[in-house]
Amino acid sequence: MAVDPLIELRDVNKHYGKLHVLRDINLTVGRGEVVVVIGPSGSGKSTLCRAINRLEPVESGTILLDGQPLPEEGRALAKLRAEVGMVFQSFNLFAHKTVLANVSLAPLKVRKRGKEEANKRSRELLERVGLLDQADKYPAQLSGGQQQRVAIARALAMDPKALLFDEPTSALDPEMINEVLEVMRQLARDGMTMVVVTHEMGFARSAANRVVFMADGRIVEDRTPEEFFTAPESERAKDFLSKIL
Ligand code: ADP
Ligand code: MG
Question: Which stretches make up the ABC transporter domain (predicted)?
Fold first, then answer.
């Protein structure tokens, strides 16, 4: 893929106390690219996502979004968070708001959109994730898979430049995993830039441009899915794959 970098991490390091959780991370995510991040539990995948959205500060190195360094605080940081949407394992929907209100909330508050415009756009997004008919329900009335699709619509409502997914299907019953992955595949086909932490190797094979394998805070491999799954180079990756495949 031609390199038109949207997210760039250069020599990024972070500790939690004595634990060196991100070690010399260098990663470029091109515009429209889908990068799947895999690796053992505790290898730093979530921390990497949180660093990109600046939910976690890093100690050294540079993180650029669209060529600009991540802002430290204030208005610029809020703007950054709006530009990089995040979808978590736990859907974090507001229980006392309807599905439509969950999706409209941030555009109304942060983007200062008019209510009618925000609701119209939210309906379009709910249609895109196949949930227009659930707009007036409350999260508890939906299945886990449906709630996660609402969370994706909510992230899209801010018109983000990129979406980060941290194990978006790990909390779901098996029969609901595919409906969420299908929405993500469609986003990928539509050209959304995505960083996806997942254990869904089928998704990695079919939707990722690159697979990044992390272990002990390092990026150990960064290759095409084809290369990674057929001929992993490192012992760590071979060992990991032998356990999950
Ligand atoms: P992964 O998502 O790959 O499982 P994480 O990024 O969540 O890994 O965590 C990497 C390491 O950092 C783990 O050893 C974890 O226990 C530790 N860690 C994560 N968050 C914190 C925190 N807020 N404080 C201290 N240690 C943390
Ligand atoms: Mg994690």
Answer: 7-241
Instruction: Compute CA 93 distance to the chain's CA centroid, rounded to the nearest angstrom.
Output: 16
Minimum-distance ligand 1 atom for the alpha carbon of 40: 3
Do the beta carbons of residue 150 and residue 102 sit within 8 Å?
Answer: yes
As a whole number of angstroms, the distance between CA 210 and CA 229 comes to: 11
Answer yes or no: is pLDDT of 26 > 60.
yes
Q: Which of 88, 132, 125 is nearest to 105 (CA)?
A: 125
This complex has an ipTM of: 0.98
pLDDT of residue 181: 98
For ligand 2, the distance from its centroid to the CA atom of residue 3, given in whole angstroms, is 28
> What's the one-letter identity of residue 14?
K
Neighbours of 85 (CB within 10 A): 24
Secondary-structure breakdown of the chain: helix, strand, coil percentages, each rounded to the nearest 5:
40, 25, 35
Strand, coil or helix: 31: coil
The Cβ of residue 138 has, within 10 Å, a number of other Cβ atoms equal to: 16
Amino acid at 6: L
In the structure, which protein residues have their CB atom closer than 6 angstroms to any atom of ligand 1? Answer: 16, 19, 21, 39, 41-47
